[in-house]
Design a protein that fits this description.
Structural class: alpha/beta
CATH architecture of the largest domain: 3-Layer(aba) Sandwich
Order of helices and strands: EEHHEHHHHHEEHHEHEEHEHEHEEHH
Strand content: 5-15%
Mean pLDDT: 77
Number of strands: 12
CATH superfamily of the largest domain: Domain of unknown function DUF4159
Helix content: 25-40%
Radius of gyration: 28 Å
CATH class of the largest domain: Alpha Beta
Low-confidence stretches: 1-24, 98-102, 117-164
Shape: globular
Strand order of the largest sheet: 7-6-8-9-12-11-10
Distance between the termini: 29 Å
Length: 446
């Protein structure tokens, strides 16, 4: 039914839709609803609700299909607004009403039918998009029955099916409690790093927030973490190439995202491992540094692929050239692992007019962002001639959206890390922060 033909009555505790035309009789009820402290609105209210709900769903940073969004909204409305029992009983009436004369089955017949059609019954009860509708005080369910519940509505609710309802509710809560435990986010943990140890934490590092960029802890070509082939100069174990710039770069970046966007950002990073658990799916954005040295195993590649296809976003940075660099062909090493993640998806250059470069800042004109090696070499590039030209590349999903952002021949991580050092040019740090802000906002909105 068109929005202009539906009146919405809402309060802080419930939202009721009357699927009736705006007639004189309905308008006459307005004082009655206002006496009950219910707000009376029109299609404008409905549009506002859709906008607010859509915005809230997008904040989850995952992609929603229409059916899935409808299902979770309908379930949440039922649980929060209070008519869950009416909803359940109305579904019982619609699903199990006797086909003859429109009369209900006997309690014994209804119980027997329940046992035989339990699976179909449950499937129907959680049909996506089902809503409670109220017409002249009689409950009914959208898309199930066009007739109000009959006088025997209250009798149906008292048959032995009540025990089934209670049992189902208990199982529902138990399953979701177990699901919550299994999918609980792992706590913050710091790791030894190549460049920094005991780097100071922000004063509010324990403050909860809606979003944080996670850093990927990956195995590398030098044997980390299980078979490390060399040690650090101080005799300590090699902490892995994934720790380059960590954690100074991360914390500087997160402070910048707080200032440049309205994302509710945590001030401290989260290190994530592809360990087969569900923890990685709690973090919408992953960052991999020095991916010219990673060496993903088959199980790592499989989980990273699953993470991306579920709606995750992976940004990688700080690898250079196509020729041997310090004995390593970094582009080839990167491709060796990424081809395990997506053997059938091409890597392509991102055009200047792509939305990812215009989501927050217009970044039509970009340039190479050098690493801290510039302080000593005076060069903005690494790895000889093949490292001179910066490449902004990607891998897209089936709908053409970027899910892997590849920053080749640049070092954004160093730009965030050294942004507070006067030796590092402001133009490089500014571009690095704007690129990150665009990428993160693109991920949250696409």
């Amino acid at each position: 039914m068109a929005p202009e033909n539906r009146t919405w009555y809402s309060s802080t505790s419930r939202l009721i839709a009357l699927e009736t035309p705006l007639t004189a009789s309905n308008t006459a009820c307005t004082p009655k609803f206002r006496c009950q402290h219910l707000f009376v609105g029109s299609g404008v209210i409905e549009a506002g609700c859709k906008t607010a709900i859509g915005s809230h769903l997008k904040k989850s940073a995952m992609f929603w299909k229409v059916k899935g969004a409808n299902a979770i909204i309908a379930l949440r409305c039922c649980l929060l607004n209070g008519p869950f029992q009416d909803y359940w009983a109305a579904r019982l009436i619609s699903t199990f009403m006797s086909p003859t004369a429109g009369r209900p089955r006997s309690a014994a017949s209804l119980s027997s039918l329940l046992r035989r059609r339990q699976s179909k019954f449950l499937e129907q009860c959680w049909k996506p998009g089902a809503q409670i509708l109220v017409a002249r005080g009689a409950p009914r369910v959208a898309g199930i029955s066009n007739q109000p519940a009959r006088a025997w509505y209250s009798e149906i609710a008292t048959v032995p099916l009540m025990r089934f309802r209670v049992a189902f509710a208990f199982c529902f809560l138990a399953i979701f409690s177990a699901w919550g435990v299994l999918r609980a986010q792992k706590p913050f943990k710091e790791y030894p790093a190549i460049e920094y140890n005991n780097f100071p934490r922000p004063p509010d590092w324990e403050q909860k927030a809606e979003w944080v960029r996670a850093r990927l802890r990956y195995p590398d070509i030098y044997g980390y973490p299980d078979h490390v082939r060399f040690a650090m100069r101080d005799g300590g174990a090699f902490p892995g190439y994934w720790t380059m710039d960590y954690p100074r770069s991360d914390r500087h970046l997160l402070a910048g995202i707080r200032r440049l966007t309205r994302i509710d950002t945590r001030s401290i990073e989260q290190v994530v491992t592809l360990d087969g658990s569900d923890d990685v799916y709690n973090w919408p954005v992953l960052y991999g540094v020095e991916v010219g040295h990673w060496a993903l195993r088959d199980e790592d590649a499989k989980q990273l692929r699953e993470y991306l296809l579920r709606g995750g976003f992976f940004m990688c940075d700080d690898f250079h050239g196509t020729e041997p660099y310090h004995g390593v062909r970094e582009w080839d090493t990167f491709i060796a692992s990424m081809s395990r993640v997506f053997p059938d998806r091409p890597i392509e250059d991102i055009p200047d007019n792509d939305p990812i470069f215009h989501t927050l800042f217009d970044l039509q004109d970009r340039f190479q962002v050098p690493g801290a090696q510039y302080f000593e070499s005076g060069l903005t590039y690494e790895d000889g001639d093949t490292g001179k030209v910066p490449h902004w590349r990607c891998i897209r999903d089936d709908k053409g959206r970027i899910m892997v952002a590849i920053c080749h021949n640049m070092d954004l991580g160093d730009a965030w890390e050294w942004a507070d050092d006067p030796r590092y040019a402001e133009k490089w740090a500014s571009l690095a922060y704007r690129i990150a802000a665009n990428y993160f906002v693109y991920d949250l909105t696409h």
